[in-house]
Amino acid sequence: MTKRKSDLLVLTDGKPGHVSQIRGLVDALFQLNPRLADRVHWLDMRELSWRQRYSGGLPTEAQNIGTVIAAGHSTHLPALAYRARHGAHLVVIMKPSLPLTWFDSVIMPRHDLQGEPKENVFCTIGAMNSVGFQPRSETESGLILLGGESKYYHWNQASLLEQIDILLHANGHLDWTITNSRRSPTTLEKELLQRFGDRAEVKPFEQCAGGWLTQELARSKIVWITPDSVSMVYEALSSGAECGVLYLAAKQRDRITEGMARLCGEGLVGTISDDHSIRLATNPLGRLNEAHRAAEWLLPRL
Predict the structure, then answer these.
(1) Is 133-279 CATH 3.40.50.2000?
(2) What digits encode the pLDDT tens for the residues 102-113?
(3) 8 Å CB contact between 270 and 171
C-alpha cells in the first residue's frame, strides 16, 4: 500500500498581509493536529527562478507533499504546477483570479464572493490572521491605527485629527498610543505630535518592531482604525478588544467599502459619524478567530 503523503508546502509571495493569513491558518492546523508542526515547508516565490516556479520541483527535504497552501496571485500557477506533479490537495487563500473550480479548497472573505459558496469554498468574516490565538493581557490603554492614501477612501487628515481629539477627550482615563503606516502622508506624524504629544504616545511605524502590533492589540482595551486599513480592522476584531472605525468618505461603492459599511451599519464596530459623534458597537461580533474556523473545515478535506 502506498503511504499517504502528509507534508504541507506553503507558497508565499512575501507580502505581509498574505503571510499573516497563511500563518493564521497554519497555526490553527497545528492546534488541531500537532503532528503537522514538523511537516511544513515554506517556499517564497521571490527566491525561485522561473524554472523552479513552474516545474513543480521540490527541495530534497520536501518530497512527501500532500497539501499545497498558496496565497497571492503570483503563487496560483506555481501551486497548480506543484499539484499536477505531486498529486497534492491544493488550498488557495483569498479569491483567485482563476476559476474557483481549479482549486480543491478555497478560503476567502465572504465579501469577495457573489452568490452562495460551492462545496470547495469556505467563507470567512474578513481576512484570517493569527491574532485570535494570542492571550489577552488587557490594560487601561487605547490604540489608534492610521492608514493613508488608498483607492477606496478619501484621506481627510483634518477630519481624522478632530476625531482623534474627540476620542482622547472622551476616554481621558486611558493610556493612548497612536501609530501611522507606510501609506500615511509625511505630514501626519508631525501633526500628531503637535496636537496629541502630551496626551498620547505617538509611535511612528518605522519604530514598530516585528510583533509590536500583536502585543499592543493584546493589551489594548479599545482600538480604533481607519477604514482603509481593512486587514487591521479584522486583526483588531480578532484581538478581543473593543473596536471602532474612524470616518473617511468612500470614493465609490465596491466590495471593500460595502463590507466596511456593513460592519458599521450593523453595529458590529463602533463608529464616529461625519458630524464627529461617537457611537459604540451595539451588536459586537465578539472575538473572531476565523483561522480556527477555516482550519476545522479544511482538515477533514486533506
Answers:
(1) yes
(2) 999 999 998 888
(3) no
C-alpha cell at 86: 505531486
Backbone angles phi, psi at 68, to 5 degrees: -115, 130
Cα–Cα distance between 282 and 266 in angstroms, integer?
Answer: 8
What mean pLDDT is predicted for residues 234-258?
93
- CATH number assigned to the domain with residue range 7-125+290-301, chosen from the 4 options 3.30.160, 1.10.12, 2.40.128, 3.40.50: 3.40.50
pLDDT band at 51 (very low <50, low <70, confident <90, very high): confident
For the chain, give percent helix, strand, coil, nearest 5.
40, 20, 40
Phi, psi of 248 (to 5 degrees): -140, 140
pLDDT tens column, 54-91: 887 766 556 678 899 999 999 999 999 989 888 899 99
**Longest C-alpha distance within the chain, in Å?**
71
Question: Distance between CA 67 and CA 62 in Å, rounded?
Answer: 11
Q: Which amino acid is at 199?
A: R
Asked if residue 222 has pLDDT above 90, the reply is yes
Give the phi and the psi of residue 273 in degrees, each rounded to 5.
Answer: -75, 175
DSSP-assigned states of every residue in 219-253: H-SEEEE-TT-HHHHHHHHHHTSEEEE----BSS-
Distance CA 159, CA 247 (A): 8
**Percent of the chain residues topping a pLDDT of 90:** 68
C-alpha distances (whole Å) from 105 to each of 5, 63, 116 are 17, 22, 15
- pLDDT score, position 233: 94
Cα–Cα distance between 98 and 9 in angstroms, integer?
Answer: 20
> Which residues have C-beta within 8 Å of that of residue 169, sequence separation ≥ 6?
none
